Amino acid sequence: MEKKVKYTWAALRIGMGWLFLWSFLDTLIGLGFATSPEDAWLNGGSPTFGFLSFATRGPFAPVFQSLAGHPVTDWLFMMGLLFVGSALLLGIGVTIAGYAGALMMASMWLSRLPPEHNPILDEHVIYAIVLIGLARVKAGRWIGLGKWWSGKVKNYPILQ
After folding, report:
1. Residue 150 contacts residue 128 (beta carbons within 8 Å)
2. Number of domains the chain contains
3. What is the C-alpha to C-alpha distance for residues 61 and 52, in angstroms, rounded to an integer?
4. Are 112 and 52 in contact (CB under 8 A)?
């Protein structure tokens, strides 16, 4: 693969990793961007209650609303953000992180059907496509710990 293409995939990987990790940090401690300090997870707030209770719409809304605010849902969501963000930033486990992140994006897309500004496509679909691309090209091998990691888990391709 051409060097410019490798660096483009690496930049996409790092950018997507930062989006996930930033969401985790803001929700965890309430940096005042999407989450106020008083609603932070560390202050007893629920990372999933507000969105799943009030922002969902469409045919799957009742399913998502039934998950709102449950501790298991909160933990799965937060650990997903942390794992996907960290894995993408470090370049380790990019295959599984890419697919897991794409599943998170698909779930968020399904929770708000139809999308607000376009009848089919929104940023969650684009992010999911990028995440699957990162997994497919094994983008952790460039500007990251992916080469080293691949040697450690060579018998487990999904962990690469």
Report:
1. no
2. 1
3. 8
4. no
Range of the domain at 124: 3-159
Residue 49 — very low, low, confident or very high, per pLDDT cuts 50/70/90?
very high
**Could you tell me the pLDDT band of residue 32, with boundaries at 50, 70 and 90?**
very high
Find tokens 């106020």 and name the residue: 36
Q: What is the pTM of this model?
A: 0.92
Q: What is the DSSP string of 53-121?
A: III-BSTTHHHHHHTTT-HHHHHHHHHHHHHHHHHHHHTSSHHHHHHHHHHHHHHHHHTBPSPSSSSS-
Burial of 80-111, coded b for 16+ CB within 10 Å and e otherwise, reads bbbbbbbbbbbbbbbbbbbbbbbebbebbbbb
Between helices 94-110 and 3-29, what is the axis angle to 10°? 60
Averaged pLDDT, 59-81: 97
